[in-house]
Structure formats: C-alpha cells, structure tokens
What we know:
The protein is mostly helical. It folds into three domains: 25-170; 176-315; 349-441. It has helices at residues 2-26, 33-59, 71-75, 78-97, 102-117, 120-128, 145-170, 173-188, 191-217, 227-245, 250-265, 268-275, 281-288, 293-342, 357-368, 370-386, 394-424, 429-441; strands at residues 354-355, 391-392. The termini are far apart.
Amino acid sequence: MKILDNVFESLGKSLDWAGSSLEKVWGKSRSPWWGLFALWVVVSFSLLLNVLDTIRSWRLLEGVNGAPTSFFSAWGLYPIGGRLLLGVLFLALFLWLSRRSRGWLLGLSLLYFALQFLDVDGLVLDTLESRDTLLLVPSAELEGAWPTVVTGVKILAAVGIIIAVVDSYRRSKAFVSYRTRLRSGISNLRISEVILWVVLLVQGALFVLAWVYLWLGEDAFPVLTTYPAAGRLAIAVIFLVVVALSVRRRSFLLTVATASYAGVVLNIDSMLVQQFGQADRFNDALFATRQLSSVIGLSSLLEVVVPILLLWVALISVGAIVRRRTRSRISAWVDERRTAIYGAEDLGPDVPTRISVLAVLSLVAAIVFPLLGLVLAYAARNDFVAAKPRKSGLDLAIAATIIGWFGLGVQLLFVITAVVGGLVGDFSVTELVFAGISALFGF
C-alpha cells in the first residue's frame, strides 16, 4: 500500500508541475489546463496528418497515367506542392504561436476549423482552375484504416475546438455579464414576450440543426460559399445572436420579431436565392429528407405562432398604455368634481367600503353589448363622483370603457367590410375577413 501511495503522490506532483508549466505558457484561466493542452495536441496532430496524407497520396501516384512524373513538376502543382507548403507553414505557425497565449491557441484553432468548414482548399482549386491531381489515386489504394483515422481526427479536432470556444466564452466576464442582464431582462418582460423570445430562439436553432444535418449528408451543398448554403447559415447564426441579445429590452425584441415576420411574409429568402441563379438544392434536400419532417412541421407551426404572439403583445401593450392614460384622466376628472362638491377635505385618506354596482355591470355588459357597456361605464363615473363615502371599482369602469370602444370599432369594421364587399363584388363579410387574416399571417 505504501508503494501505491507513493505512485499516486508522484503522479499528483507530476500533474501539478505540468499544470504550472502550462499556466506559464497560456496564463491562468478558469478553464482546466488539461483541456487547453488536449486541444493543442489534437489540432497539432490533425495538421500533421493532413501533411502526411498529402505525402501518402503523392506516393500512390507513381505509375498512374496523367500523374506528374518528376519531383519538380509535382512540387510546382498546387494540389501537391501548394498543399504541402501551406500545410507545413500552418503547422509551424500553430506550433509557434499557440504556445504564446491562450488567445493565439483558440484563434488559430478556430481559423483551422473555419478553413476546413468553408473548404478553402476547393476554393483555391477553382480559382486556379486546377485539376485535383490527387484524385487520380486509385480508389482501392484509398481504402483501409488510414483515411478513417485522418477523418476521425479531423472530426475530433472540430469537436474539441467548438467545446473549447464555448467553454472559454462560458467562463468569460462577457458571459457572466450577459447572464446577469438576461435575468434582469426576462424579469422585466411579460410572459407572452418571454414566450415570443423563446419561439424566435427555437426557430433559429432548428434551422441551424437542419443545416448541419444536411451538410454532414453532403448532398445539399454543391457550392458552399453561395447564399443558398453558407449565406443561410451566416444569417441564421447572426439571427440567433441578435435574438439572444434582444431580451435586454422590450422594444428591441419586438423589432427583431417584426423584422423576422416581415422577412417570412415578403419571402426574402427566395429573392436572395434567385439572385445567385442556382437551384435551391438546400430546400429540396430539406423537404425530401424524412428525418427532418418533424423539424419542418415545427418550423411551420412557429411561423404561425410568431404573428399571433406579435399581435397579442401589440394589443396588450396598446391596452396598457390606454389604460394608464385613461385612468389618470378619469381619476383627475373624478377628484376635481368631488372636490367641487365636498371640498378639499374629500381628498383625504378615506378607504372605499363599497364597490360600484354600475362599474361591475358595465364590464359585464361591455363584453356582450359594447354600446350598453359604454353607457353604464359613463354612468358609473357619475356614481364615483356622487358617492359619499367613496366607492371602489374605478378600474372596472375603465376596463369597460376600453372594451366598449374596442367592440364598437370591431362592429364598425364589419359594417365597412360588408359595404366594401357589396361594392367590389359578390363577397361575404366572412370571406373578406378571412382574406385579411390570410394576408396578415402569410397563409
């Protein structure tokens, strides 16, 4: 047991020494040192494998028809010499700069991920109008464990880079500040506005997930750098970031939601696709993939939910403003007349002991018969002025006033719609109303 204790003690001291040494290289961080070291190892190994894979494919070209026959001719071609040169230079640059600071490590790792993701190698080939010489390697020579290892290490490096970047942001002061503002922002929003914020986030996240799924399938992205492919992803990511920040202020959130809804109604996405003059293989693959049918259904449902929530938020916002202004005006009107009748002492702190029956009846009547509700609401105002002591229920009369005027407005709208339908053609009120709703919600 003593020998085992000594082994663990020596192992602990070795890990402490390694951690202190790496902290001198990358500085102190809330992230564990072994995570940064693992990222450095896997990215370096992936870069090295890229160079070795190019050399291996070059060796397999010997004796293949159409392949370069001399060292200098092969080295002068980008598919061989250019790839080797860039691979070695980037590997050397990464090994040199990534040890200077944590920022260089994360930045170069993220750059490597972006170069792989955007297929910059294919862009260079297209720009140089060069044929990929390495494609001449017989397919039988490319089978085996080596291609699987190279691809696996690339995927592992990509996952490590994403985890490292997310973890670094999660432990940063910016994220702590955002989390504090997020809690404050959510507490200041109404429940319907929080639901609207969540719906917008889910919309963006669903699109990104569908995009990644189709990208891994490699059948929906003939040209990655055009709008139908990379452009859509960039807009979705920017949309997610903006929506995440919009929770800080109600006006910001409603502006983002309105812009998103307007983009759907105006079909901006299709207009941008047409500008590139390409077949929309992304949407074709999206609707043809059975695994994404639930994603499409949920996205379609959320597109209907967004305008409904916007309309609801707009109504309650306008209602709150009208209620606040109406209450202040009516309260001032009641106090002015009570002072004229009972004198200034009436403004003292007397607690209402009775509720106005007219106010209650006005609210009930306004829901069914708006005109009757308005008459009772205005009668309740006089009841508040004449009652001694004061009566409660002023908020009920104010609500009845708002609902009554709104109901009269809706009835007037139906009358105008009927008249217009009769003048324009043989259209019923119901058909015109549903046509307006369809135009509003983009059906």
